[in-house]
Design goal:
The protein is α/β, with parallel strands linked by helices and about 550 residues long. Among the domains are: about 90 residues, no CATH class; about 90 residues, Helicase, Ruva Protein, domain 3, CATH 1.10.8; about 140 residues, no CATH class. Helix content is about 50%, strand content about 10%. The longest helix is centred in the first third of the chain and has 21 residues.
């Protein structure tokens, strides 16, 4: 059993989406983009119902955003939508896998980008189209289907059965008669493609195309056949579109051709878009005039990532076990990862973390994804990752536990004082500071005094009060010790205003160190390990770095 009562892991395991995974779509940005694409498809489809297509019946869509933002996922989602199965035939091409990028390889990839079901549906409809011709051209149709004498005795009633046998490769057509039957309604190019389709050698005939114009004519022919025989428009999706010369020349030709009853969807990154502008202003101008320009900016925001991650669970939560409390708890963990690990602020990384976290939870028999499981996952799949700004390399589970108390500074002030004293004890042992004095004999509000490596006497005051007036009063009281010591170091968590120091001979002898949450967590984590005598060599180096970061040495 997997967490939240799921029967299996809801998250994709591969770095690139599969068609099955892509049918789950979360996030407002992605849903808005989907809505725009569907509007484009519906608009074009509605215009083709009552008229023959012209070069006006062509649409261009660009989809732009950084790597890992879910562009390919959305393209697959559109291609696999059951609701579009009756309206569209889609070819998806990943240009990064087309090499060398000549016209033959690009054309072959387009043909390979159509699903087998779409190809088979087109073959079947061609044969049934020929069957219907029997009402007016019975003799020619029977000859085309290679009916023998005994077959002809049954008339036309078994033509559909013969069509199915041809699809299964048990019989072949006589293309001398097929061409005659189709000549009035299909072009010579279309008849050649139909022959290749029915002989199941469409891709093996790619080498017969000798020019870019020939490829474009073939695409026009295919789009026309999809509309005439299937009543579907054709979508050409080109992922990883870039500024390579071959790509630009091909796409420019497709755009200029305005292939009737088709949509060209180009998927690219902002950097590729900028490179295209530099390399070919003509293509760039055409992209700028796209019917729909979809920018997935915002797909990596916290709100978007929360929605995407939770949508996977909801999709597979058949029993409704995933309640609002668990959703809120999971959202808090997503936020923590997002806030503390900037490198993971994209869809791909987040989904990878949660896939492995679910696997880990299943092995441990955990019903929920807790902090410890997520921490172990990140350490395993992203070794070396640490909390943003953390000098002590605090584990995520410890960070979460400690951070809960950071929002109540008055309750942890005593812990920070103890941590500072223990940190000074350690740095004293290592020879960075000298003459520690924890007795507070120099003035009110002073927690410890010591000598730095230059021999100056330093007084330290920990002031974590959230109220600026009280904070200023505490600092003022501590400043009175400057008649006895050389410098005053104030560690404060109040960053809502500038807290001035004291000048002596033109020099600022009061140093204000504003403690953010990460430094406070680091100090408490250090203190916990110190008291348990768990400070090892690496921790020792980190502790000295922490001491330096807050100006103790």
């Amino acid at each position: 059993m997997f967490p939240y009562g799921l029967k299996f892991n809801p998250y994709p395991s591969s770095p690139t989406p599969s068609y099955v995974d892509s049918q789950i779509l979360g996030g407002k940005t992605h849903r808005d983009a989907k809505r725009a694409i569907l509007t484009c498809i519906s608009d074009l489809f509605s215009k083709l119902k009552a008229a023959n297509p012209t070069d006006r019946d062509f649409r261009l869509i660009t989809m732009i955003q950084d790597v890992g933002s879910g562009k390919t996922h959305l393209a697959f989602h559109i291609k696999g939508l059951p609701d579009l199965a009756e309206k569209t035939v889609t070819s998806y091409v990943d240009l990064s896998q087309v090499a060398p990028r000549d016209i033959h390889n690009i054309y072959d990839s387009i043909l390979g980008g159509f699903s087998r079901n779409d190809i088979e549906s087109l073959r079947r409809n061609i044969l049934y189209f020929l069957c219907r011709k029997a009402d007016y051209h019975g003799s020619s149709v029977r000859k085309a289907f290679n009916y023998g004498f005994l077959d002809s005795l049954s008339g036309n009633k078994h033509l559909t059965r013969r069509a199915e046998e041809i699809l299964r490769g048990k019989h072949r057509l006589n293309f001398q008669y097929v061409s005659e039957l189709l000549a009035t309604e299909f072009s010579e190019m279309q008849i050649e493609i139909i022959e290749s389709l029915l002989e199941d050698r469409l891709r093996s005939d790619v080498e017969n195309i000798r020019s870019l114009e020939g490829v474009i004519n073939s695409l026009v022919a295919i789009a026309h056949m999809n509309l005439k025989l299937l009543n579907k428009i054709t979508i050409f999706q080109f992922d990883e579109f870039d500024s390579k010369k071959e790509s630009l020349e091909f796409i420019k030709a497709v755009i200029n051709a305005h292939i009737p009853s088709s949509i060209l969807m180009l998927i690219l990154t902002p950097s590729s878009y900028d490179e295209i502008k530099k390399e070919n202003s003509s293509v760039f101008d055409r992209l700028e005039k796209a019917n729909y320009k979809i920018d997935l900016a915002g797909s990596n925001t916290l709100a978007e990532l929360k929605d995407i991650i939770i949508e996977y669970i909801k999709h597979y939560d058949e029993q409704g076990n995933f309640d609002s409390h668990q959703e809120s708890d999971l959202e808090s963990k997503i936020k923590l990862i997002y806030d503390e690990f900037p490198d993971f602020r994209n869809v791909r990384s987040m989904l990878n973390i949660f896939y492995h976290s679910v696997e880990q939870a299943s092995k441990k028999g955990s019903y929920v994804l807790d902090e410890l499981i997520i921490d172990e996952t990140i350490r395993c799949i992203y070794p070396g990752s640490k909390i943003r700004g953390s000098l002590m390399n605090v584990p995520l589970s410890d960070f979460i536990q400690i951070k809960r108390g950071v929002d109540k500074p008055e309750e942890i002030e005593s812990d920070i004082r103890e941590a500072v004293r223990n940190l000074l004890t350690l740095t004293n042992y290592e020879g960075y500071v000298n003459d520690l004095d924890f007795e507070n004999q120099v003035g009110e509000g002073i927690d410890v005094t010591y000598n730095d490596s230059y021999g100056s006497r330093i007084a330290v005051s920990v002031v974590l009060n959230n109220e600026p007036i009280k904070t200023q009063a505490q600092i003022s009281n501590a400043s009175k010790s400057l008649s006895i010591v050389d410098k005053l170091l104030v560690l404060t968590g109040n960053a809502s205003r500038n807290l001035g120091g004291t000048l002596r001979n033109g020099n600022d002898v009061t140093t204000i160190v504003k403690m953010d949450n990460t430094k406070i967590v680091d100090l408490i984590y250090f203190n916990n390990k110190y008291k348990k005598q768990e400070i090892l060599n690496e921790d020792l180096e980190r502790a000295v770095t922490l001491a330096r970061s807050i100006k103790l040495c």
